[in-house]
Design goal:
The chain is mainly alpha-helical and 181 residues long. Helix content is 57%, strand content 7%. The protein has eight helices and three strands.
Length: 181
């Protein structure tokens, strides 16, 4: 097999939603963007991370999140918004297990810490290692930082809002995930 053929095969075998490197750097970008470096400033409701990672994957999904925040609630007038939010919701729910396992692995490596917070939820924050921050602030992650910035502008309390409130505001009020417990 030629080297070029092997590279093509690797690209075909790559599944972004299940790639732990991809998930890791997106988790760390979110924590870094919100300056979650101490116990006093954790990212509340770690399960929101799976939803945010899905919204960071493309400009279209970022814009979808922003549109969901602006949408008139309790109307079924926009089937396109509903269908795409349903897609993001479903992918995110499936990804939560991967994110949870990854968070525990990052905790074991002393990259982040996970702790219960004041809302009976679980929060996460990262240890601001200079080498890691220099990697995260490399130009190759500019798109992800711009996307999370755009998402935060649409939903300023994103870091501190409980998981249930996040689901309600973004998905349930737009008709998606009404069966969520």
């Amino acid at each position: 097999m030629k080297s070029n053929d092997l590279n093509i095969k690797k690209k075909i075998m790559f599944i972004k939603d299940e790639d732990y490197n991809y998930l890791t750097y997106n988790i760390l970008i979110v924590l870094d963007h919100f300056k979650c470096y101490t116990q006093n400033k954790t990212f509340i409701g770690y399960m929101k991370l799976a939803f945010l990672i899905n919204c960071l994957t493309s400009d279209a999904d970022t814009n979808l999140f922003v549109e969901a925040m602006k949408a008139e609630k309790n109307t079924q007038s926009d089937l396109f918004l509903y269908e795409n939010l349903l897609r993001v919701y479903t992918k995110s729910k499936l990804m939560q297990g991967h994110v949870k396992r990854l968070l525990f692995a990052l905790k074991r490596k002393n990259i982040i810490d996970i702790l219960p917070d004041r809302f009976s939820s679980v929060g996460a924050y990262m240890f601001p290692n200079g080498e890691m921050l220099s990697i995260l602030h490399d130009n190759m992650f500019n798109e992800e930082y711009e996307r999370i910035k755009k998402i935060q502008m649409a939903y300023p309390r994103l870091r501190s809002i409980k998981y249930e409130s996040f689901l309600k505001k973004v998905f349930i009020e737009n008709g998606v995930g009404k069966w969520e417990d």
